[in-house]
Amino acid sequence: MEKNIHSRLLIIGSGPAGYTAGVYGARAMLNPTLIQGIQPGGQLTITTEVENWPGMKEVQGPDLMIQMSEHAAAAGTNLISDHINKLDLSKRPFEALGDSGTLYTGDALILATGAQAKWLGLESENNFKGFGVSACATCDGFFYKGEEIIVVGGGNTAVEEALFLTKFASKVTLIHRRDTLKAEKILQQRLHKNEKISVRWFHELEEVIGTESPKGVSGVRIKNIKTGVKTTMSCKGVFIAIGHAPASELLSGQLDLHMGGYVATKADSTETSIPGVFAAGDLTDHIYRQAVTSAGMGCMAALEAEKFLSHSE
Ligand code: FAD
Ligand code: NAP
User: Which architecture characterizes domain 4-116+245-312 according to CATH?
Assistant: First the structure.
């Protein structure tokens, strides 16, 4: 294993932002190195149909991400399977240390580490994670054939997860803390039409109930936040779909973050508070958080990195 890999452009993250930066960076002859992380392809690898990627009426998320990785590699990006556990943005070139022990250095750096699923933070949720509690319907839905399932959340992810889970479950109940959904109208329409799905408005999950031996979920206790009335429901699976938080832990104290951990960038730009470090995709976007906007920012970041490198030469 090589212990030091230097590139003019180092990209961290392999979602739509990272791969698009790879395509543009390679075509600008920057010979980029892209570190894929523990989720090669990013968040779209844990979903099924993607219906809003322009040019494709419908594509499976994992297939789209394989195509993007092949595109970045064909353009000349060096894709590396590693996970960065330490970053030093105070040095030039910038340094990133991988779990493999390799030190990656870059004259310019694009951060595209995306976002990770949020959890409610309940002790019982944590206890049953992997034993009936999940944040990924495409990964775990199959285990709940003929069973009752609850999904918590009211955004696009929650509604898509609920719809997807009806392929396996006998019944899906969506638990939402308000009486309106954030999800796109077309998804809401599909949700309300689906006879297997019911919605409990103004409810929150209080506790996941289950057994320790064998370990598994048998139900949940939910609370009506208007009346305070608590209800117990039986179910075998609990899917938490309450949004995502930016993966910026490695950056804390090194560059400007805002809005709860998103990387702050200059207006109409992917430039961060450190010259030569650019941020793209869900790591910096607290508003749109879409594949297409992430890809757009990946393109911007590579073009801006190219400009930065040519000016600094
Ligand atoms: P991500 O896709 O989050 O990728 C982040 C990458 O960074 C990963 O490859 C990860 O391995 C890597 N990484 C993280 N930390 C490190 C590290 N320390 N070292 C190295 N690598 C690291 N959007 C749509 O437009 N249409 C949809 O239909 C759609 N469906 C979705 C369904 C679900 C279930 C979810 C969760 C999201 C969906 N989205 C959809 C949103 C979309 O997936 C995101 O907006 C998009 O993936 C963000 O891209 P990104 O490149 O910023 O980061
Ligand atoms: P989101 O849009 O942030 O929605 C999170 C949902 O969870 C909201 O309904 C929120 O309630 C609820 N919630 C948050 N914290 C909660 C808590 N502690 N307890 C109970 N409920 C809580 O997140 P998302 O659905 O994961 O979507 C993330 C991004 O990815 C969005 O930009 C979305 O458009 C995108 N995405 C797109 C697609 C698509 O295009 N098809 C699919 C999936 C995701 P409130 O409504 O009360 O705030």
Answer: 3-Layer(bba) Sandwich (3.50)
